[in-house]
Design a protein that fits this description.
Blueprint lengths: L13 H34 L13 E5 L8 E6 L2 E8 L3 E6 L10 E3 L4 E3 L6 E2 L6 E3 L8 E7 L2 E5 L2
Antiparallel strand pairs: 1-10, 2-3, 3-4, 4-9, 5-6, 6-7, 7-8, 9-10
The structure holds FE2/S2 (inorganic) cluster.
The site of FE2/S2 (inorganic) cluster (FES) has 11 residues, from loops.
Length: 159
């Protein structure tokens, strides 16, 4: 049948089938793309260390008094809206590090019993004297902040 012989007053039987087929193809393509994105995003996030571990810059921020940090004591404080772990270690004195884990960005804690910095998410442990990784999946040390004592107050300067 030639194209000009076709009855244009009747619905075209081929057109709806092609539209359905095209719609199904688009839906299948969309579902494949969203499934791949859902699977690959956490894998890439796990393999690439978080970039949130870098410290900010700015003026010294008072984080407490020296009396708040006797030897063996530490806690997480806020410095310019960023978590910083401050600890008074027997070996290294007062220290301050970014409290953002270099693995996937969880907030680390001061473990008073073991006197180390520990991440609750995947159990990474950090040396409170130099921020180095002791164990766990963290790929790099915690960035250190400059900590100064003025009178009886502690100040942290993001670097
Ligand atoms: S986020 Fe995984 S060990 Fe800290």
């Amino acid at each position: 049948m030639k194209e000009e012989d076709r009855d244009l007053t009747q619905p075209d039987e081929q057109a709806p089938a092609l539209s359905r087929r095209r719609l199904i193809t688009y839906l299948l393509g969309f579902s494949v793309v969203t499934t791949l994105a859902g699977v690959l995003t956490p894998i890439i996030g796990y393999l690439l260390p978080s970039g949130q571990a870098s410290a900010g810059t700015g003026e010294p921020v008072k984080v407490g008094a020296t009396a708040d940090f006797p030897v063996g004591r530490g806690k997480v404080v806020s410095v310019q809206d960023k978590p910083v772990v401050v600890a008074n270690t027997a070996e290294g004195g007062l220290k301050a590090f970014s409290a953002i884990c270099t693995h996937l960005g969880c907030i680390v804690e001061w473990d008073a019993n073991r006197r180390i910095i520990a991440c609750p998410c995947h159990d990474a442990h950090f040396n409170p004297v130099n921020g180095a990784v002791i164990s766990g999946p963290a790929p790099s040390p915690l960035p250190e902040f400059q900590l100064t004592v003025q009178g009886d107050a502690l100040y942290v300067t993001p670097s």
